[in-house]
Amino acid sequence: MTERSLSAFTRAKRVIPGGVNSPVRAFKAVGGTPIFMKSATGCTITDLDDNTYLDYVMSWGPLILGHAPPAVVKAVQAAATRGTSFGAPTEAETELAELVVSMVPSIDKVRFCSSGTEATMSALRLARAFTGRDKVVKFAGCYHGHADAFLISAGSGALTLGTPDSPGITQGTVRDTLSLPYNDLDAVSRAFDAHGREIAAVIVEPYAGNMGFVLPRDGFLSGLRELTNAHGALLIFDEVMTGFRVAPGGAQEREGLSPDLTTLGKIVGGGLPVGAFGGRADVMESLSPLGPVYQAGTLSGNPLAMAAGLATLRGLQVADTYETLERSTERLVLGLGEAFGRRGIPHRIAHRGSMFGFFFTGCDVVDLASAKTADTALYGRFFHAMLERGVYLAPSQFEAGFVSTAHIATALDDTLAAADDALSALHAVA
Ligand SMILES: *Cc1c(COP(=O)(O)O)cnc(C)c1O
With a threshold of 0.70, does the pTM exceed it? Predict the structure, then answer.
């Protein structure tokens, strides 16, 4: 029963475009109407009609310690009683910056803002200023937030809604963004041959999580490092999703690579609005007030957000956290893969750390074009069958899934049992 969600959606649509404040929440990709949530704890989330679901969306990635972990809630409450915003520096900002610098190998200095979008937008401005060049190379299906420069063949909500290029973006912006296929190093090489002296930066999701979950081929990321070095462009790893997720130091630690700039978000804010960008000291020191590149924010480094980020990153320092996360995710992915296999459903499934994804396709998925071979209608039916059985997956085939430290063994077993049952039901209908 989802009556209350239905009426809440009707009410919301009167005053909020489409009834939601971020498009993928609207369930357009899977059909039906969105479930309105009212509370969550650990690995479960509860809707307005009191249905409780095992959650694999986890607010799209920030909640690596689960929903409302006591340490984070306590830290935010304590910060709130001291004052919610000062517009002046606080020690909490330095403490979180020290932790970020100690965890992420390539970051010497970091600046906090309030969203991943702000982080990537600011990193690009900085890269353009530092190199004195205008163009940026991105990859189709990679999502870097909703700043104009990146909404050219963007992933995530833009992809799901079938509007990869949003109206409202100027021709000038389109000219300065080169969108290439993910995993296609030859295309990058050709772009540098043609535009080498104009390219300020290459930005990439080191593990793509916004066209579904797509891994880099061996040599792709290191090839980007070599090409950017050779042509005097900066390499930006957008680790808003992978940062603190796939390893303490993100994908760059796992891959042993050092980008010039890194963008962060999601986990670094522990469920409150935080973004961050950081990297080489010489590049970061071009930022205002040290250098000429302007960047600012009334609520940047907000005390509640810093408290949530600190409590989350400290929670991740507990021994074996990443090993446990990896094992849980592996168990889930193996179980799902077996369940799809038993029904003869063509699929591709993968994970790194506690990030995972699957596609209903018989093709290897290496880029946006191959991701689009997935059977999105089947995904929609599977999504709803899982929802009915108490499992909340991403409402789109083109999103990653997330496991937290709160996803205990019984929750994973229940998920796999639900998947088996859901697939039986779909099979009976087909
Ligand atoms: C979520 C995401 C962003 C945008 O972050 P917001 O906080 O939603 O603005 C940027 N890049 C990547 C890789 C993301 O996953």
Answer: yes
